[in-house]
């Protein structure tokens, strides 16, 4: 199927989710022309601020594949991924992300995607959530443990 067809499916999921009491976002993950997983925003339904459509699709695809990498796959989403979901896509090593609406459409819909992108361009001292380095003497201990573990699974 073409990009447009997969985007249409993501958009259908987003519209349907609103009727079911969720947020207006949907996503699908595709590999080699085959649907791997779908996701719909479940933030308010599950009381989970990280339950974005893209994140849920990534979680489902990885669980079904038994793999933490989605290399070779494409994420189609009804709206430009927010910084959380872009990062999730990067961590998942997706080949491509294709979106329908953009961050400006999301802003018109009442969502903070664009605001969060703008936040990352500003100094952290201006953020509504304080993010502070509380440097601790043992700060590197987890990495020492990691680096000395010869059985570690790199990701
Ligand atoms: Zn998101």
UniProtKB/TrEMBL annotation:
SUPFAM superfamilies named in the record: Cytidine deaminase-like
All copies of domain CMP/dCMP-type deaminase, residue ranges: 1-123
InterPro entries: CMP_dCMP_dom, Cytidine_deaminase-like
Pfam families: dCMP_cyt_deam_1
Protein's name in the database: Nucleoside deaminase
Organism: Nocardioides conyzicola
